[in-house]
Write a structure and sequence with these properties.
The protein is of the alpha/beta class and 335 residues long. The protein folds into two domains: 24-114 and 219-308, D-Maltodextrin-Binding Protein, domain 2, CATH 3.40.190; 116-218, Periplasmic binding protein-like II (D-Maltodextrin-Binding Protein, domain 2, 3-Layer(aba) Sandwich), CATH 3.40.190.10. It contains twelve helices and eleven strands.
Length: 335
């Protein structure tokens, strides 16, 4: 009898453990999405505020959590280390992450095109690229998308950054630091993304030297992408629902930009503790095309530029960086 009781007790314990493990497994069905609380990641902000990802994935048994980043390199590293599963991020960090993770990261959609300006001090006699000799310029981070664009532009116009033996100095500072440095005339210009481009224009004695869109065919290039870790692609229902939310949010945004402004404004203030006026957000949005098109020709061009700037030892093979979720590409973004 004692053995029977002990066996029954053991069976109950095993069942209890199995149940606990089952619930624990369910609790771990979490999709973690990384993004920047910034205007060029507007779809992420709107989807969060509307609870769209959670609503779309609840039937699959998933909850969604969000992770805020301030640099693309950090977001990509979190993808590779499995701390997040999905991210809104720029093309250069995406390419670097894809190459260095042996293809672990995949683009499933575009998110934004444009929204990047080369701002210079208005008191300087800079009218042509050659006038940039002996200047001191700023970019947000070494090896990020704006940095690659700035250094490529300098080299293509017959100049060189100081690290390559030239006379153009490039500092790596955040937008808030660029604002201070430009105001104090400690830098001569900055290649920055929105909303910092508009903030610099409105708060310093500066002007637009170049809108990056003017350097690209049809004025279109990928400035933000929706990327995932490759193992998530195996779950077809989840990946399709994530992409559907992104596409539908993109379409709504393009059709309702004025309605989106206060939502974006409130989210940025709540999450980033940054107060932006509606005018700044509206002007920033006017320079960004929100699109689910990944604009793959620009991804290839960015990869070649990164190679020329010694980010890679060889031209990276990115032929499989894009994963087409649907049988046909849904690029009708409305608006």
């Amino acid at each position: 009898m004692r053995k029977i009781i002990l066996m029954a007790s053991a069976i109950v314990s095993i069942i209890t453990i199995v149940i606990l493990l089952t619930y624990s497994k369910d609790d771990n069905k979490i999709i973690r999405i990384g993004y920047f609380p910034n205007v060029n990641h507007a779809q992420a902000i709107l989807a969060i505020e509307n609870n769209s990802f959670n609503e779309a994935l609840k039937d699959e048994g998933y909850k969604v959590e969000y992770k805020v980043f301030n640099a693309g390199t950090e977001a990509i590293q979190s993808l590779i280390s499995r701390r997040i599963d999905v991210a809104y991020v720029g093309p250069i960090p995406t390419i670097i992450g894809y190459v260095r993770s042996d293809g672990m990261i995949k683009i499933i959609a575009g998110s934004a095109s444009g929204g990047s300006l080369f701002i210079i001090r208005d008191d300087l006699p800079i009218e042509t690229p050659s006038d940039l000799a002996n200047t001191r310029l700023a970019a947000p981070d070494y090896g990020n998308t704006q940095d690659i664009s700035l250094r490529s532009y300098i080299i293509e116009n017959g100049l060189k950054p100081k690290e390559l033996g030239g006379n153009v100095e490039i500092l790596y500072v955040r937008g808030s630091e660029a604002l201070i440095l430009l105001s104090k005339k400690d830098i001569d210009g900055a290649w920055v993304a929105e909303p910092w481009a508009t903030i610099l224009l409105k708060n310093t004695n500066s002007r637009i030297f170049l809108d990056e869109r003017d350097l690209w065919p049809d004025r279109r290039f990928a400035s933000a992408l929706l990327v995932v870790r490759d193992d998530l692609i195996e779950n077809k229902n989840v990946i399709k629902k994530i992409l559907d939310v992104h596409i539908n949010t993109t379409r709504w945004l393009n059709a309702h930009k004025d309605d989106a402004i206060p939502i974006i404004q409130r989210h940025i203030e709540d999450v980033a503790k940054q107060k932006l006026s509606e005018d700044i957000i509206k002007e920033s949005l006017s320079r960004i095309e929100f699109t689910s098109d990944p604009i793959l020709n620009s991804i290839e061009e960015f990869a070649e530029r990164a190679y020329k700037l010694h980010i890679f030892n060889n031209i990276p093979d990115i032929t499989e960086i894009y994963y087409q979720v649907f049988d046909t590409i849904k690029v009708n973004d409305g608006g």
